[in-house]
Design brief:
By secondary structure, this protein is mainly α. It is about 75% helix and about 0% strand. It is flat, with a radius of gyration of 23 Å. The two termini are about 45 Å apart.
């Protein structure tokens, strides 16, 4: 199974590289153009894209982990270890989610204080 997964992964990478170079070459000249895979022009855009990506993942995983923690908390009626595990999952998920939410605000605050970027968000 592991060999099959490795073979499929390597095949996808090789085929992607071939298609990238096939699409990148201009038919009128021998110049090769590569598209920017990050879709960003500067470091500011890269940081914004990373924070937006992490925020998107957190929006889906945060409630799921809180539900799992609540399930462990409720079903661990006589098992103190399971109750504590459920509490820890809920607490750390909440703390992590708040940190991720605040990260966007901190970036906007730093940009404002430094006078970088013309728009907020």
């Amino acid at each position: 199974m592991r060999k099959l997964f490795l073979l499929i992964s390597v095949s996808i990478i090789i085929l992607s590289a071939f298609s990238l170079f096939a699409n990148a070459q201009n038919s009128e000249s021998d110049t090769v153009f590569l598209k920017n895979p990050l879709q960003a022009e500067n470091i500011e855009d890269i940081i914004d894209n990373i924070i937006d990506f992490i925020l998107t993942i957190a929006i889906f995983l945060g409630p799921l982990l809180i539900i799992i923690g609540g399930f462990l908390f409720i079903t661990g009626s006589s098992n103190v270890e399971q109750i504590n595990r459920g509490k820890r999952i809920i607490i750390w998920t909440t703390i992590g989610f708040l940190i991720i939410l605040l990260s966007k605000g901190v970036v906007v605050l730093v940009k404002t204080l430094l006078g970088v970027g013309g728009q907020v968000g």
